[in-house]
């Protein structure tokens, strides 16, 4: 089994499209006002947004995008006007992460983990 795509909720798909295009995702389906799908720059996964009447009541959506050039990418996005809740920081789980929210409040984590993503020292064999 392979992860094909992740879909997140949005109150305004058009606004979300602009945000995710700034992140660098490539828009491949635009069915406004209800739906949009993107390709990730690397790999085969896709990412989509669908219109909802109300967002979840809690912080239940976390989306991680990995990039080897994390610090440079965060700098680029700050120059594009995006605000980060956490600038690139080395975490105890051996990932370097930066955090921001999309227009709907979904938590977006840009990170770099390298081999530690799937093979941390505490991996179960």
Automatic annotation (TrEMBL):
The keyword Heme does not apply. PROSITE patterns: VOC (PS51819). Pfam families: Glyoxalase. SUPFAM superfamilies: Glyoxalase/Bleomycin resistance protein/Dihydroxybiphenyl dioxygenase. GO terms for molecular function: dioxygenase activity. Keywords: Dioxygenase, Oxidoreductase. InterPro entries: Glyas_Bleomycin-R_OHBP_Dase, Glyas_Fos-R_dOase_dom, VOC_core. Residues 2-113 form the VOC domain. This is Glyoxalase/bleomycin resistance protein/dioxygenase.
């Amino acid at each position: 089994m392979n992860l094909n795509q992740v879909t997140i909720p949005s109150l305004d798909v058009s606004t979300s499209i602009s945000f995710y295009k700034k992140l660098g995702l490539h828009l491949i389906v635009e069915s406004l006002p209800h739906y949009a799908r993107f390709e990730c720059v690397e790999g085969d996964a896709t990412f989509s947004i669908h219109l909802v009447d109300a967002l979840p009541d809690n912080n239940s959506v976390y989306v991680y995008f990995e990039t080897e050039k994390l610090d440079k990418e965060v700098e680029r996005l700050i120059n594009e006007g995006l605000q980060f809740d956490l600038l690139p920081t080395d975490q105890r789980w051996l990932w370097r992460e930066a955090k921001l929210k999309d227009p709907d409040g979904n938590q977006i984590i840009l990170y770099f983990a390298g081999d530690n993503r799937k093979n941390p020292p505490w991996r179960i064999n």
